[in-house]
Amino acid sequence: MFIELAEFLRCPADHEEQSYCVIVPDRMLDRVVRTGSIGCPVCKREYLIVDGAVRFDDVSPVESEAGPAGLPAPEAVQALLGLTGPGGYVVLVGSAAPIAEPLAALLPETHLVTVNPPTTTWSFTSSALFSQARIPLRDSMARGVVVGADSTAEHWLSEGARVLLKGLRLVVLSEDVTVDGVERLAVGDGMWVGRKGQ
């Protein structure tokens, strides 16, 4: 996990106050926290960072051999997100995570965050977060969100919209969805694209 992401993390436990989490790195490589812990000052829960991934619960990641094959081209995802400049964060949820590494090459200086990625997509070029309760990030912090076809339940779509900045785009790797507070822009080729309201 990149150390700069710490200020955007939120505890996934069910409490209203979105306090900053406190990170205690044990082992780092450059700006990447490889082992350590994260604490919530509100509910006092502690979460482990293991092999660079933050484990907000004990649910094991889904073993998958899936890779970028069968997913849209990273160039198409970049175009649908409408991102050209550097900086900020793009969040990829579930089976969209394998796009992270090739997408990173197209978005220099933009940090990628994967949520519940398949184990085969773990990478020290992006931050991996595991949480079955919610996306453990603060409201309105991401420049773009891509939701995989395995995460199209209303809960995950709402979470994707929650962490997205107003006026920016949500891409879902499925056509048959609707997302509250997000205006549909286009549907086709197995994807749905929308813009979060102002």
List the helices and strands and how they pair.
Elements: E1 22-29, E2 32-39, E3 46-50, E4 53-55, H1 74-81, E5 89-93, H2 100-106, E6 111-115, E7 127-130, E8 142-147, H3 154-163, E9 164-172, E10 182-188, E11 191-196
Parallel strand pairs: 4-7, 5-6, 5-8, 6-7, 8-9
Antiparallel strand pairs: 1-2, 2-3, 3-4, 9-11, 10-11
Helix pairs in contact: 1-2
Question: What report would you give on this structure?
Answer:
This protein has 198 residues and is mainly β. The protein has an 11-stranded mixed β-sheet, with helices on both faces. It has 3 helices and 11 strands. The chain is 13% helix and 33% strand. Helix 1 packs across helix 2. The protein starts with 21 loop residues before the first strand and ends with a strand. The model has no long low-confidence stretch (mean pLDDT 89). The chain has 2 domains: 53 residues, no CATH class; 123 residues, Rossmann fold (3-Layer(aba) Sandwich). Helix 3 links the parallel strand 8 and strand 9.
Fraction of residues in helices? 10-25%
Order of neighbouring strands in the sheet with most strands:
1-2-3-4-7-6-5-8-9-11-10
Mean pLDDT: 89
Tell me the count of domains. 2
Largest sheet: 11 strands, mixed
CATH architecture of the largest domain: 3-Layer(aba) Sandwich
The string of secondary-structure elements, in order, is: EEEEHEHEEEHEEE
Q: Judging from the principal axes of the Cα atoms, what is the shape?
A: globular
